[in-house]
């Protein structure tokens, strides 16, 4: 393979475009969330009753401080309630409020529609190759990081 050039820029440029269309869609639908807040709120929704702050930190690849800050923002917006698991006072249990469920009901269809927009005119093989390449880049960087730090 020839010397790679600019793929980090292309990944970043694409991510910024995706974030921009999501934020515009949020605004157009009266949803006051950041991309990070949506990602964490949706992940808590996916995890259900077992959603803990520790699990969110692990599965969203954010550090504890960032996760804590985002969760605090969601609590302040009354989309989440933060409590403790029964019998486990060390872990924070995250529960989505009725207001949070309303936001999910608004945003989830938007999310699926925008995902479809992003892959328009991309066939399944191209999509599978794209995901495979991203996974390989991530794994290569993870291996490098593990061996270096």
> Total number of helical segments?
6
Total beta strands = 2
**Spatial order of strands in the largest sheet:** 1-2
What is the fold named in CATH at topology level? Answer: Arc Repressor Mutant, subunit A
In angstroms, what separates the terminal alpha carbons?
Answer: 27 Å
Percentage of residues assigned to helices: 55-70%
- Count the domains: 1
How much strand content do the residues show? Answer: 5-15%
Global morphology: globular
Features:
single chain; 149 residues; mainly alpha; Arc Repressor Mutant, subunit A; two-stranded antiparallel sheet; 2 strands
Short account of what is shown:
This protein is mainly α and 149 residues long. It contains six helices and two strands. It has a single domain, classed as Arc Repressor Mutant, subunit A.
Describe the protein.
It is a single chain. With 149 residues, the protein is mainly alpha-helical. It has a single domain, classed as Winged helix-like DNA-binding domain superfamily/Winged helix DNA-binding domain (Arc Repressor Mutant, subunit A, Orthogonal Bundle), CATH 1.10.10. Helices cover 68% and strands 10% of the residues. It has six helices and two strands; from the N terminus they run H-H-H-H-E-E-H-H. It has helices spanning 7-28, 35-47, 53-59, 64-76, 98-118, 124-148, and strands spanning 80-85, 88-96. It has a two-stranded antiparallel sheet. The model has no long low-confidence stretch (mean pLDDT 91).
SSE inventory with pairings:
Blueprint: H1 7-28, H2 35-47, H3 53-59, H4 64-76, E1 80-85, E2 88-96, H5 98-118, H6 124-148
Antiparallel strand pairs: 1-2
């Amino acid at each position: 393979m020839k010397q790679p050039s600019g793929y980090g820029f292309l990944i970043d440029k694409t991510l910024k475009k995706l974030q921009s269309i999501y934020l515009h869609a949020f605004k157009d639908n009266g949803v006051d969330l950041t991309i990070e807040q949506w990602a964490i709120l949706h992940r808590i929704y996916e995890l259900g009753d077992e959603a803990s702050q520790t699990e969110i930190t692990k599965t969203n690849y954010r550090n504890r401080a960032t996760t804590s800050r985002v969760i605090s923002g969601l609590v302040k917006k009354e989309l989440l309630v933060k409590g403790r698991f029964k019998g486990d006072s060390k872990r924070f249990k995250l529960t989505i409020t009725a207001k949070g469920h309303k936001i999910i009901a608004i945003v989830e269809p938007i999310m699926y529609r925008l995902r479809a927009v992003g892959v328009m005119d991309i066939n399944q093989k191209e999509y599978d190759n794209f995901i495979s390449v991203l996974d390989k880049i991530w794994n290569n960087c993870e291996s490098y990081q593990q061996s270096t730090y």
